[in-house]
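Suppose a colleague, Dr. K., hands you the sequence of a protein chain of 536 amino acids and asks what its three-dimensional shape might be. Before reaching for any lab equipment, you can write down a predicted structure in token form. Begin with the sequence itself:
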Amino acid sequence: MAETRYIGGQGPGQGCYALAEMVGRGGFGTVWRARPVDDSSPKGFLRGLGVGAREVAVKVIPVYSAKERSRALREGQIARALKHPNIVETREVIPGDLEVYLVTEFVRGVPLDAAAGHYDIQEIVDALAQILEALSYAHSQGIIHRDIKPQNALVDDRGRVKLTDFGVAYRAGDTRLTQIGYAVGTPGYIAPEIMEGEDPTELTDIYAVGATARALLAYQPDEPPQRLLEFVNRATSPNPAHRPRSADAALKLLTGQRESTGATKEISKKSSKPLSRRYANQTLRVVNGLVAGWLGYLGAGLVLGGAESLGIAAGFGVLGYLLPRLGALGVIIALAVALARSQHTGVGTALLLPAVGGLWVATGSVSESVRRLPLGPLLAIPLAAYGLGAGLPLLLGALMRPLGAALSAAAGAFSLIVYDLVREDGVILYLGLELGSLPSAAGPLTLLQQGEALLRAYPTLTLLAALWGAMAVVISVAEWLGFPFAGLVLAVVGGASGYALAVSATPDSLSQAMTSLGFAAIIYGLVKYLGYGVVG
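The predicted structure, expressed as tokens, is then:
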């Protein structure tokens, strides 16, 4: 077992720390997770064991010359003077004989480049805005970071971005420690004027933020919105005069908000999401892949054997995960072909299905979350089979943004209704309406006419879709604002009232709805509770 290493200073106010494990390595030193040890207190022994001690990070910087020592102490002095929610807090600078130790808060998280692999466009904008907030404050203190890049921004377990590593920062009035003509920074993020030997300015950091945005957008499969493209193009302009004149101006260009005062604004609060929210896009893709596989298996089972069906299901599942909208369209068309070849389905249903499915997939242009989960409405069918269909709005609201959640939930209600009319006994679940089955041999026009007649005769069919959409919006908005449990209570109470007062026609159907909604609420609450336990 390796012996624990202790570091500390002799000066007043300088503590002692036990280095637990190395968590990072860079060009100027190593970073360790550590715990404070206070041998002078009665609790010193317990603290040495890590009981009651709050973890910190210790950057160990080797120094082999007076110049290197000056650089390390200067980094500590600059970082310690900066106090901002989006900057890693430096708590202590301890000079040693052969090393300098910078004691900072320990950020439980990952570098921005790793986190951005799961981000959507809005989350990238939020992250960039937080970096600009930090720079606005640093620049107001006369500090130029000079090495902005995704690896020097940490994302904690609640989604907050914290700028770190001021090792090559430039402070107004300081003597330059680098030789004239020597460019400081990381290739790809260094402004062109620095390569030509000019002094760093605020525009140097703004260029690096634009380059960071360009690097983060490499993870996105879709074209960024025009505002974001304009920000990247202007921030990375080779001509400094064409860039935003300050971090505040860059923030305004990026978000369209008023200029910053140096304080963390609402956009930072919106980014402080539970860990599960940060990975919502990945979850959407996984769920879409599972639904695509399920549909592929059902469709292949109509015309093929078990082994072939499993192979097709696996292929559609992978396609649905990698390319959600293309996979959704492919599985809908394949299912339509399988239905056309089935003896129990008429040509009308087989032709109508790809038209309706393709229309829904096309709505992905309205909402990015719909684009990630185009098969979301069809989740209503397998969930209903296990008594959880009425809880679909809770799931969609937790995973999707408000517009996408509302559209998917409403379409999910209609999917369930159509399934009960075409494939089941015509008794609409949660409504209790006995409408009978649509004729299997009917043509497309006949099905459309009968569907329109049913909607006119039974407005509760539309009310069910509206209720599901409203519940999904409540959950999604509450998630977005950071109050998921309040949203859960409001959605469940509103949903139960809607079923009791306007939707459910029989006691049995109301009981089905209440049971389904209750189970879904319990599952949602447990997932959220466990999520907060992990990240809290």
